[in-house]
Structures are given as structure tokens and as C-alpha cells.
Amino acid sequence: MEESSIFQDYFLLRIENIFFVIAAIVSTAMLIWPAVGKRGTKEIDTRKAIELINYEDAVVLDVRDESEFAAGHLPNSKHIPTGKIEERWVELTKFKEKPIVVIYKSGIRSNHASNVLYKNGFGQVHNLMGGIDAWKRASLPIVKR
Questions:
Q1: 89 or 145, which is more confident
Q2: What spatial distance separates the first Cα and last Cα of the chain, rounded to whole Å?
Q3: Rhodanese domain location, by residue (predicted)?
């Protein structure tokens, strides 16, 4: 075997390994990003939400649209649609030291509202996994206007 051929094989092997290393780094970053992206928010189930509401005087923040909120919501919940949270979060300032349970229809878009609250100094922000749908499936109380 020629020396230049050995060098070329070695060089190609190194390049292939670099691509594997880069792919591994990108894959790891993609797996970690959702946890990092949530920042200070935590996902909780209905059992933990009830515990926070009953024993720690948690504030329930419903970020669904007006019509969804009017159709049924948790008792004593505050309502700020997710599209207005950036301009209206100050309404919740007096609750900064309390746990806040953020609720949406299925729990997906509540992350935006939770992140806005967290960025503005709310340290105990929780998203209800499954949102209002999970609450209803558990046959927990819903009130209408």
C-alpha cells in the first residue's frame, strides 16, 4: 500500500468521525433544549395542582381565549389570554411570591405565558400538563360565568 493512500484513508476516517461527533452534539442539544427552554417553569399534573391550590394558595391563571374561558374554567381562576400576557402580566404582580398554575386548552401554548411570568420575576410558575382537558378528564370542578 502506498503512503499517500494510507494518509488519504486516515484523513477520510477523521472527517467521517467529525461528522458523527457533530451529529451527536446536535442530537444532544435537541434533547436538552426543551428542558432548558422552559426556564423556571415546571410541568405538574392535576394532583399537584390541587395540592398547590389547596395548601399553598396557588393562583390559577387561565390563558385561553375569552370564549373558551366563558365555556368553563377552574373556580377562582384569573383570566389573561396568552396573546395579552406580555402587556397584562403586571396585573399579577401581587402574586409574585405565590405558586402560579398556568392553564391552557391542552397545556401546549401555556409555555409562552409561563416564560413571560418567569422572566418578570415570578419564581413558582407551573404548567398544568394536559391543560383544562386533563382537569375535565379527572372530573374536577369547572365553573361557567
A1: 89
A2: 84
A3: 54-144
pLDDT score of 132: 94
19-55 pLDDT per residue, tens: 776 777 788 777 776 555 555 678 999 999 999 999 9
Task: Give this prediction's pTM.
Answer: 0.72
Q: Which of 79, 127, 76 is nearest to 101 (CA)?
A: 127
Q: Are 117 and 89 in contact (CB under 8 A)?
A: yes
- DSSP states along the chain: --HHHHHHHHHHHHHHHHHHHHHHHHHHHHHHHHHHHTTT-EEE-HHHHHHHHHHH-PEEEE-S-HHHHHH-B-TT-EE--GGGHHHHGGGGGGGTTS-EEEE-SSSSTHHHHHHHHHHTT---EEEETTHHHHHHHTT---B--
- Residue 86: Cβ within 10 Å count: 13
- Whole-angstrom distance, CA of residue 49 vs CA of residue 135: 10
What does pLDDT average to over the chain?
A: 86
> CA 33, 82, 68 angle in degrees (round to 5)?
120
Q: Cβ atoms within 10 A of the Cβ of 107, count? A: 19
